[in-house]
Structure formats: C-alpha cells, structure tokens
Amino acid sequence: MKNITWNKVKTTVKDWQVGDYIRQTSIVVIGVLITFVGSELVTQNSEKKDIQATMSLIRDELKSNRENYKSIVSEFREDERLSSLLVEHDLKHRTIPEDSLIQFRFLMGHIRSFYYSQNALDILKNSMLMQKISDKELLLQLTGIYEVLDGFRATMNGYYDMKDEIMVPFHLALTDEQTDQINRGGYEAWDIYFTPDYVERVGKRIDEAIQALEKKYHLE
Q1: Alpha-carbon dihedral 127, 131, 134, 137, rounded to 10 degrees
Q2: Which of 97, 103, 118, 157 has a Cα-to-Cα distance from 44 of 20 to 30 A?
Q3: Phi/psi of residue 30, each to 5°?
Q4: CB 171 within 8 A of CB 179
C-alpha cells in the first residue's frame, strides 16, 4: 500500500470546492449521528427490557403477597365469626348450639402471622431504572400498596400477638383432662374458657411443680 504524504493531502483538499467540503463534512456528521442514535436506541431498548422484567417480578411478588393476604384474612374471618356468635348470645355459650361451638374448637389456640415480600420493589428502588419510568403515578401506586401491606402486617400481627400472650399461658395451665375436653370442643370445653378460675389454675400448677421438685430431690 502506498504511503499518503501530507503534501498530497493538502493538494487534494486545496482542489476541493465548497460543495466538496459540505459533502465530506455531512458524511462525517451523519456517520456520528447514526452511531450515536444507534447506540442510544440499543440502550433504550435494553432499559425497556430491564424495566419490563422488573415490573414482571413486582407483579409476581404482589400476586404472592395477595395469596398470603387471602389466607390470613380467611382465618381471621373465623375469629370474627366466633366473636359475633358469642356477642349475639351475650357470652352465654351454653345458649349456642353445641355443633356450632365444636367447629371452633381449635380456633382459640390458633396463632398466625402475616408476612409479605418486597424484594422485587427493592430491586427497582436500588436500580437506575426507577428514574427512567415516566409514569410517576404508577410508581406512587406501587410504593403505596407496599405501605398498605406493611400497615396490614402490623395490624394482623398485633392482633395475633395479643392472642398469643393470652392463650398460650392459658393452655399451659390446663390439666390433661381439660385439654382433652377443649380438643373435643363441646360445652365442657367452653366452660373451661368462660369459667373464671384461670388464676387459681395457674397457682395450682405452680404448687404442683414445687411439690414435684421437693419430692424428687427431697427438698425441705
């Protein structure tokens, strides 16, 4: 290949007319623009795919959260039904048909907790994609529903925490016979729940434990 000398280049350029300069400059500018636009289109297309994939993850996550929500609401409704039934009968459980009480026999000791996931939303928040989304109302809707889920979690778990604090010590204070009666769920079971001897039962269980220790280890 022949070497291109600077003198030759100057001679060639010198012979160019104004139209030649414009044409050559236009070719360079157009080439740069095509490269820039092409690169920008590739970037936009890649970002669009990333946004769509992330939104798909959020959609799936919300569907999973919806199932968890439906599950705990279904069980909480049972607590509501039992409460309404007792209130309707002025807490006089023996005026309620025994079959109705039996269907709630395990409910008093049933403790649940609600959880939800927001990993997909966190992925969006921690990426640069969030600022690329033009629909800000949709973003507000998404962040808002996760705040609603967090409030719902606090409400449900607060309810079941209180229930747990009351019912666990209550059941631990029961004798084996009383536990069997509760598992059967008839009137005798609800007599145990509504008979105000809980404090006495606790004291009795403490005394039994002390006596067992004294007997086992010959303590005075």
Answers
A1: 80
A2: 118
A3: -60, -40
A4: yes
